[in-house]
Amino acid sequence: MAWSEDEDGGVDHVAGRQSCGVKTAIERLRDTVRIESTIDPEGAGLRALGSLRNRIMHFGLKDTVLAVQARTVPVLDLLVGFINTDILPQVHETDEAWSVERHMEQVRDGFKHLTDLLALRMETLSSRLDGYGSSTASCRSCGQFTVVLDAGAQDLACLLCARQYGTGEDAAWEFIGSSKHVTITDGGGDGGGDLF
């Protein structure tokens, strides 16, 4: 964990416990240890995982384990690639290189388990998703295109992680990031009809 500096320039490990962001961490890699990274700190996978982390920290874990795994896999892939191409070539001591490689094998094995699990689940769901390509949305929890927006559905849910969206109208409000209440409170009208 990389800690940000407090106002006196020292690193604050106790009070505040504020970690630095991806952009600052990449700048530190470049400026401090001279490792150039091709990681985009604004990449979709990193942003989604950061958002998930913030939701968990501020509101508690409300997503399923499968949703967290699905969000984590793209970032783990990015980090394993970064370690393989940018970090491991910098390790020149034989004992240290051997130790790092042993640990990375454990990481790769665990990562393969996650990717295999997600691939199996998606394969299992493929027959249920057939024919819904144009009416399938990305789940706000797991990020997979596994929410079938079926007209008139009363119980919309993600087929992968089981996140519940309620009615089609509830799901539509969730997907645009608002609610009927907020829209009316902010001066929008009810329109007297359906959302669509």
Question: Would you write up a description of this structure?
Answer:
The protein is mainly alpha-helical. It has one domain (38-183). 52% of the residues lie in helices and 6% in strands. It is built from 6 helices and 4 strands, in the order ααααββββαα. It is globular and about 65 Å long.
Briefly summarize what is shown.
The chain is mainly alpha-helical and 196 residues long. It is built from six helices and four strands; from the N terminus they run H-H-H-H-E-E-E-E-H-H.
Count of strand segments: 4
Helix/sheet category:
mainly alpha
Strand order of the largest sheet: 1-2
Largest sheet: 2 strands, antiparallel
Order of helices and strands: HHHHEEEEHH
Percent range for helical residues?
A: 40-55%
Query: What's the rounded overall pLDDT mean?
Result: 79
Assembly state of the chains shown: single chain
First-to-last CA distance = 46 Å
